Amino acid sequence: MNFLEERIARDGIVKEGNVLKVDSFLNHQMDIELFEQMGAEFARRFAGEQITKILTIEASGIGIACIAARYFGVPVVFAKKSQSINLDGEMYTVEVESFTHKNKNHVIVAKKFLAADDSVLIIDDFLANGCALRGLIEIVRAAGARVAGIGIAVEKGFQPGGRIIREMGYHLESLAIIDAMDAESGAITFR
Ligand code: 5GP
Known about the structure:
By secondary structure, the chain is α/β, with parallel strands linked by helices. The chain has a single domain, classed as Rossmann fold (3-Layer(aba) Sandwich). The chain is built from five helices and ten strands. It has helices spanning 3-11, 32-45, 60-72, 131-142, 161-167, and strands spanning 13-15, 19-21, 53-57, 76-79, 91-97, 104-110, 119-127, 146-156, 172-181, 188-190. A six-stranded mixed β-sheet has the order 4-3-7-8-9-10, sandwiched between helices. A two-stranded antiparallel ribbon has the order 1-2. Strand 3, helix 3 and strand 4 (76-79) form a beta-alpha-beta unit. Helix 2 (32-45) crosses helix 3 (60-72). It starts with a helix and ends with a strand. The relative contact order is 0.18.
C-alpha cells in the first residue's frame, strides 16, 4: 500500500451507496502534510509533461490542486459551480451531474483563464462515474487547450469513470484505486 492507501485504510469510512468518507483528512479537515506527499507524487507521475496550468473544480479539488501547483510552478484555475457577481466576461459553461448530491450543476470557467496554448493538468479528489472530469475536459477542449494529464486522489475502480477516461486516451493517474468496498464490514480492497 502507498501512503494514501494506508491513510484511507486507517481513516476512511465506507458508507452505504458506494460513498467513501474521507472528511477527516481530505475533503473537510485537510491534512496538508498528506497533500504535500500527493503533490510530490503527481509531480513524479507527470514529470514528462509540459504543464502550464492546473484546472480543478470547487470545492474539494481546490486544496489538493493548490499544493500540487507548488510542485509544477503553475497557477490553479477552479471551475465554479454557480454563477456569481464575481464572474464576468465570457465564460465556458458545461452541465455536470453530481455523484454526491445527485443533481446537475453548471460548471463555469471564465474564458480569460484558459488559452489555446495552455497545457492543462486536471486534478480532482474523487473519480466515480467520471461526470465531473468529462465536464472539465470539455471546458479545456472548448478553450482549444490540451489536456496534458489527469491526477486523481481516489478512484473508485468499481465505478466506470476511470475506464471511460482511459479509453478516451487520456493520461490518468490515480494515487489510490479502490476495487471494492463494503459498508457493512468497512473493508476496502485496493487495486
Ligand atoms: P463523478 O463525477 O466521477 O461521478 O464523481 C466525482 C465527484 O463526486 C468528485 O468531485 C467528488 O466530489 C464526488 N465523489 C464521488 N464519489 C465520492 C465518494 O465516494 N466520496 C466522496 N467524499 N466524494 C465523492
